[in-house]
Amino acid sequence: MRWFVDAMNVIGSRPDGWWRDRHAAMKRLVGQLEDLAAAGEEITVFFERAPQPAIESGSVEIAHAPAAVPNAADDEIVRRLALEASPTEITVVTSDRRLAGRARAIGARVEGSSEFRRRLRYEHR
Fold first, then answer.
1. Residue of 15, 98, 82, 1 whose CA lies nearest to 44
2. What percent of the chain has pLDDT over 70?
3. At the top level of CATH, which class does the domain 2-123 belong to?
4. Distance CA 16, CA 99 (A)
5. Which residue, 10, 21, 33, 99, has fewest beta-carbon neighbours within 10 Å?
6. Cis amide linkage into residue 66, ω under 30° from 0
7. Nearest to 78 by CA among 42, 47, 111, 102
8. What predicted TM-score, i.e. pTM, was given to this entire model?
């Protein structure tokens, strides 16, 4: 399965103090996504801006919007979906209703952030 993950939407779905160290939260999410990728999933995670310092992964594509403006990652996800030959093979992870509607209009599936977080917890067992 292919996944496009709205990173800050997933991170922000759980009030675990992530806002105190945003970069650490971003790294934690990428680490969890790497575990899922090791199980054969193809994952692209989208950030509003390029992480500083950079976050690297050998199994998860790290993507970001070209400019850090409101909803920039959402727009980048939609732009990338529109470029896909088979957007129906991609699941967008978000709880943002507007992004979910835009993704579905292109043909992608959508999974909510909370449901996806449960999937990540299950994969870590």
1. 1
2. 97
3. alpha beta
4. 24
5. 21
6. no
7. 102
8. 0.92
